[in-house]
Amino acid sequence: MAKRAPNWADWPDERLLALRFCDLGLRLEDSPLPARIAQLYAELAERGLRLRPHCWLAEEWFSPDGVPGIAIPFYLAHPRLMRLEARQMFEVEGGGARDCLRLLRHEAGHAYDTAYGLRHRPRWRRVFGDPRRPYPRSYRPRPESRRHVQHLDWWYAQAHPTEDFAETFAVWLAPRSDWRRRYAGWPALAKLEYVDRLMAGLAGRPPLRRSRRHVEPIAASRETLAEHYARKRRHYGADVPEPCDEALERLFAPAPRARRRAATLLKRIGPALCRICARHIGQQPYAVAQVLNALLARCRALDLRVGRPEAQVRDDLLVFLTVQTLHAFQDRHYRIPL
User: Fold this and answer.
1) Considering its fold, how many domains does the chain have in total?
2) Distance CA 149, CA 154 (A)
3) Integer-rounded Cα radius of gyration of the chain
């Protein structure tokens, strides 16, 4: 018998945002996630590793201290919630099967660290650094560095020694990653070779920690989705500068007789520009979207029209959006919030 769609699946965003997490009635097994988790388990089995990190639905991706498991964000459990996430945050982290597996491998690295106490090994600390170092609220990446693997976006391995290990583990675990060739000549190759030896030593061994506890499951959360997204947006917020009207007018070229409104064009191509800009400068798409919204508001206020070919305007808009975003984050100097 086909599963019934939840009663909120057709609700408008405003009504859905008022719902509490505990009232969503989500179940992991009713989503596409079990197939992706099974793929992770198959990759671990292929390496001879025994631990199968248990998974549950929470508000965000994480693997908690002391529990060798993986929390998966709630929105991946239903397409309606993925659409809401995209509108609220301008991205859906792990929304595609490939990206979801990349994140599962990363979190599995944390779970293995917890299950076998890997960070307490002296060799681990010499390779990755001191895990007792305070976990930062943000970090300043060095895109040119070859001391870290490049797996998740925003050079995430550079955030903390534990993230460095999880990222290295994920690259090592991924099928057909060809990491020996990809990282040949990089200092990061020594980390991958260490993980390769370390995991060979764990093959067939049972975990030391076996807790199956669910940490911060959404089924126990009385927070509303609106409260969740308000907090999430504050975390990735920025003080957005007022865009220069003269620069905007030059960008679109004054064209009183032109019919196409600049605001209409910006609204249509803006999300794609946000993603490109975010990837280039290492910021969350939502933070870039705030700058985009400021540009959109000025375009409407000035009633700007598109007087040049769209391809030219698109390229110039990307440059302008990037400059404005860097200005908004200049005090952070490429610091990425965690």
Assistant:
1) 2
2) 11
3) 22
| Tens-place pLDDT, residues 204-251 | 999 999 999 999 999 999 999 999 999 987 777 655 556 778 888 888
* 307, 252 contact by CB (below 8 A): yes
CB contact at 8 A, 292 and 274: yes
Q: How many C-alpha atoms does 163 have within 13 Å on its Cβ side? A: 22
Average pLDDT (132-151) is: 88
Q: Give, in degrees to the nearest 5, the angle at Cα 248 between 247 and 250.
A: 65
Residue 238 confidence (pLDDT) = 53
Q: What does the block give as tokens for 325? A: 């975003």
Q: What string of DSSP letters covers 209-230?
A: ----PPSS-GGG---BHHHHHH
Which amino acid, 8?
W
Distance from C-alpha of 37 to C-alpha of 28, rounded to nearest angstrom: 10
Q: Identify whether 3 is part of a domain.
A: no
Whether residue 30 is found in the same domain as residue 159: yes
Region 120-132 average pLDDT: 97
Residues 194 and 295 in one domain: no
User: Sign of the CA dihedral 158, 162, 165, 169?
Assistant: negative
Q: How many CB atoms lie within 10 A of CB 168?
A: 27
More reliable by pLDDT, 206 or 277: 206
* Residue 83 CB neighbour total at 10 angstroms: 15
pTM exceeds 0.85 for this model: no
Which residues constitute the domain of residue 166? 13-219
Same domain, 138 and 90: yes
Least confident of 123-132, 172-181, 303-312: 303-312
